[in-house]
């Protein structure tokens, strides 16, 4: 089961990859975490699902400067609008990758479920908010007062009050909800359902699910144009990205990514000109021109890239490559990997933060 992140103008998620044949090989950077440490001015924050912690990368030097202990299975990560707080989905459900007989798995530890709150000024986990069962991906409201959680096992999307820690309400979403994103410029939250092959749209002003829109099989995430006018939803088993008009809630087109592509994570360039798509086992970062809705380039990012973060200036992408326990650093202008950075075990989600 796979993970996602909510892009914003200052903390966006992105993926990247392959060196051109003529390019020199990527540099591998090894680093020893420092303790205690301060959050870097330009930081990349990576959740490590297996080791249960957060790797903090100084984007200027390309080194890990510290590690924060989080809890069980940290996956989705989101940044507060004021860039002072990280929210991380923590789950006590045992990992159940495709092909595993879930009846053979140990029982879930529901005491481990929640949303971790990490203070970037103190660089520590402050508390864990309630979340509903098996939280996988989180998003933050425009005003920073609420966190939206996809609860995969429960087929629910929860709304959590940041100040009180109360679950304000929950919405029934199709089976296996995963991706969750807040629509720019609107009071709407979009949630993907892997099992239903659809994206559900919640209107927060009316407290109702407005509709569900059929996309491709096993949708993983949602990215928006900066003005919120179009949504892009990848289908891992369909090798497509469905483009949805966010005003009419109608499908515009399905972008064909090519045979063998398994799209998962998505992130929009800050200027909206390109959509970046990670492809997991296909190892690629795909680059889509949003003016033509066509794939214009690809980069080999490494082993199973999923979570991605893009720098605030739109020039660099970072992909969480789970099997190799590393983050790939991608020059988006040269379209090549420039280095890899060792992190914790099972990197899953990534976020870029430029501190105020």
UniProtKB/TrEMBL annotation:
Which PROSITE patterns does UniProt cross-reference here?
Answer: PROKAR_LIPOPROTEIN (PS51257)
Concerning Pfam families, the annotation shows: Lactonase (PF10282)
Which SUPFAM superfamilies does this chain map to?
Answer: Nitrous oxide reductase, N-terminal domain (SSF50974)
**Any signal peptide, and if so, which residues?**
1-22
InterPro entries per the UniProt record, alphabetical? Host-pathogen_enzymatic-act (IPR051200), Lactonase_7-beta_prop (IPR019405), N2O_reductase_N (IPR011045), WD40/YVTN_repeat-like_dom_sf (IPR015943), YVTN_b-propeller_repeat (IPR011964)
Superkingdom to which the source organism belongs: Bacteria
Listed A to Z, the keywords are: Signal
Q: What is this protein called?
A: PQQ-dependent catabolism-associated beta-propeller protein
Species whose genome carries this gene: Luteitalea pratensis
